[in-house]
Amino acid sequence: MESLLWQFVQSLANPFYLNYLASQKLLSEPTFVAYLDYLQYWNKPPYLKFLTYPGPTLKHLELLQQEKFREEIISPELVQHLADGDIQGSLDWLKDE
């Protein structure tokens, strides 16, 4: 398995990295958004077993499919909320939608 790909997917667990991607305008690029959609295969075996933090990684990958989340992750408040609550913060964001 490609080490860089694994590292990138794992980094999606980090809300501060998601904020960085948003600040670089990557989350508004259709090609990058399509790539994030393609990465959904990490939800299934055999790839799933390679994730160190499957909960937040997969939850953030799922949230990144939503345009509203991609727009709002630029907010330091949302980033801190996700960081403080880890996976619970992601679930709370979904409920507030």
TrEMBL record:
InterPro entries: Med31_sf (IPR038089), Mediator_Med31 (IPR008831)
The UniProt record lists the keyword tRNA-binding: no
Subcellular localization: Nucleus
Annotated transmembrane regions: none
Nucleus keyword on record: yes
Keywords assigned by UniProt, alphabetized: Activator, Nucleus, Transcription, Transcription regulation
Recorded superkingdom: Eukaryota
Principal location listed in the UniProt entry: nucleus
Functional summary from the UniProt entry: Component of the Mediator complex, a coactivator involved in the regulated transcription of nearly all RNA polymerase II-dependent genes. Mediator functions as a bridge to convey information from gene-specific regulatory proteins to the basal RNA polymerase II transcription machinery. Mediator is recruited to promoters by direct interactions with regulatory proteins and serves as a scaffold for the assembly of a functional preinitiation complex with RNA polymerase II and the general transcription factors.
Subunit structure: Component of the Mediator complex.
Family assignment from sequence similarity: Belongs to the Mediator complex subunit 31 family.
Name of the protein described by the UniProt record: Mediator of RNA polymerase II transcription subunit 31
Native source species: Apiospora phragmitis
UniProt lineage: Eukaryota, Fungi, Dikarya, Ascomycota, Pezizomycotina
